[in-house]
Amino acid sequence: MPAKARPQSATHRFLLAIETDATRYHGAHASKPRLLDQGGCEQLLSHLAADLASLLPPSTRCGLVTAGALFDQTQVLRPVYPMFEALENLSRSAGSRPSAGHIGLGAVDGHMQLAGLQPEAGIPLGLLQILPLLVRGDPDTVNELATAMEHRFLEQGQVSAHTARWLESAFTIRINHARFMTLTDLNAMFRLQLEHFGFLPLWQLLDAALNGLRDSLAVTANSGQVFAWRDGCVHAEYQTFNHWSQSGDGRKTDSPRGMLASGYADWTRSMRQFLTVLRAHAVPLVFYLPGQPGQALQGTFFIEHSDQAAPTRSAKVTEHSFAQLGTICVSVVTDGRLDNYYPLNPQGLNDIHQAIREQGLGGDTVAFPGCILFDERTRGLAADAPARGGQH
Fold first, then answer.
1. How far is CA 138 from the centre of its chain?
2. How many CA atoms lie within 13 A of 107 on its CB side?
3. In this structure, is the dihedral angle defined by the CA atoms of residues 101, 107, 108 and 113, taken in order, positive or negative?
4. In whole angstroms, what is the distance from residue 64 CA to residue 69 CA?
5. pLDDT tens readout for residues 229-249
6. What tens digit of pLDDT does each residue of 299-325 get?
7. SS3 label, residue 385
8. Of 98, 120, 119, 283, which is closest to residue 208 (Cα–Cα)?
C-alpha cells in the first residue's frame, strides 16, 4: 500500500496593533521599544496564545510564529509584506508538519538574528507599533481561524489587561490600546487615514505596491499631478519651475509674483508629500522629464540648463525657497547663464551644495532671498542681485 502523504502545515498572517505614547520615542530622553531575548519571546507567545484561545478556541490546535520586536507600520506595510515573508521562512525552517508548538525568534546582543526582522533605526516612530504574527497548523484549522479573525477581531480583538501590562513592561512602552488585527483591518485603517487628509490616490498606489499589482494604474493627485504604477515602481513627471510656469501645469496661472510662486510651491508640496510617504513604505518613485516617460532621472538632483541670461552683478548662487517647504531650487550662474539645481529627494540638497563647492563657488556670493525669484516677463527663474540685500 502506498504510504500516506505527510500532512502539510499552512500559515495565515495577522498582527497585534499597539497604540502607544509616541512622545517617548523623541526628544532628549527618547527610548525606543525594547527587543526581547529568546526567553522574553517565549513568554510573549504564551501570553498571546492564551488571549487568542479565549477568543478563538480552535487556535489551541495551532502554533504561533513571531519575533520579539515591535515595528512601525511603515516598515510592516511594504511591497509584498517582506516581514511576514521572513516569518514564513522561519516557520518553514521548523519543518512542514502541522504542530501546535510556537516558534519565536528573540534578539541576541540587542539584534534580531534575521536582518528582515530588525526594526529600522532611521524610522521616526509613530503611535502605532505592530507585532507581525502567523498562525500555523493544518490547513483546515488555519482556514477556519482566518475566517473567524476577519469577523471577530474588529469588535473583540482587544488583548487582556494582564497581557497589556506584560507588554508594557517587556517592551518598555506605554500602551493606550492593544488588539489583534488582520492585515485587511490594518490596510483599511491606513486607507481611512490617508483619505481623511485627501490622499486617497496615494493609497491606491500603495495598495498596488503592497499587493504586487501586475497591471498598470494611474491616479491623479488633488494638485493635478499624475502618478502611474507600473513595472514595480511609481512614475511621475518632474516639472521644473520654468517648465511648470511656461508650458506645464502652471501655464494658465496668473503671472503676479505671489500667485505664480505659491502655485509652484503647492505643486512641489504635493510631489514631496507623495515622495515622503512612498519612500517610507519602500515604494520607489521614478521621476522623468515632461514628454520623456521612458527616461528616468538619475541621481539625487537634476540640473536644468536654462537659456535665461544672468545680469552682470547677480549673485553666483541663489537658493529659492518657500515658507515651510524650505529650499525648492538652487540657481547657479555659470558663464553668464543660469543653471537650476532641483533636489529629487531629501539627500539631494546636500549633494547640490557639495556639487556647488566642487565647482569652486562656495566662497562666492550666495543669496537667500526667502522666496522664489523669477522674471515676470519670461516666467523663468532669476538670480538674486546684491542690491536686494539678500546675500550672505
1. 35
2. 18
3. positive
4. 15
5. 999 999 999 999 999 999 999
6. 999 999 987 777 778 888 999 999 999
7. coil
8. 283
* Per-residue pLDDT at 392 exceeds 60: no
pTM for the full model? 0.89
Listed in sequence order, the residues at least 6 apart from 206 whose beta carbon sits closer than 8 Å to its beta carbon are: 77, 190, 194, 277, 278, 281, 283
pLDDT tens readout for residues 182-197: 999 999 999 999 999 9
Mean pLDDT, residues 18-31 taken together: 85
CA distances 288 to 100, 113, 301, Å, are 52, 40, 12
**Whether the Cβ atoms of residue 338 and residue 331 lie closer than 8 Å to each other:** yes
Cell of 77: 506595510
Work out the burial of residue 313: count CB atoms within 10 Å of its CB; fewer than 13 is exposed, 13-18 middle, 19 or more buried: exposed
Strand partners, 286: 235
Query: For residue range 351-376, what is the model confidence (pLDDT) as tens digits?
Result: 999 999 888 775 667 899 999 999 88
Cell output for 188: 483599511
DSSP 22: G
Measured on CA atoms in the order 160, 64, 36, 124, is the torsion positive or negative?
Answer: negative
pLDDT at 30: 80
The full DSSP string for 76-143 is HSSTT-HHHHHHHHHHHHT-SS--S--EEE-EETTEESSGGGSPPTTS---SEEEEEEEEEE-HHHHH
367 by DSSP, 3-state: which?
Answer: strand
| Mean pLDDT score of the chain | 90
Confirm if 247 and 237 have CB atoms less than 8 A apart: no
Of the candidates 86, 116, 90, the residue with the CA atom closest to the CA atom of residue 103:
90
Contacts of residue 153, defined as CB under 8 A and 6 or more positions apart, other chains included, come to 14, 179, 180, 181, 182, 185
Check: CB of residue 12 under 8 Å from CB of residue 142: yes
Q: Which three cell numbers stand for residue 243?
A: 517648465
Location of C-alpha cell 525606543? 32
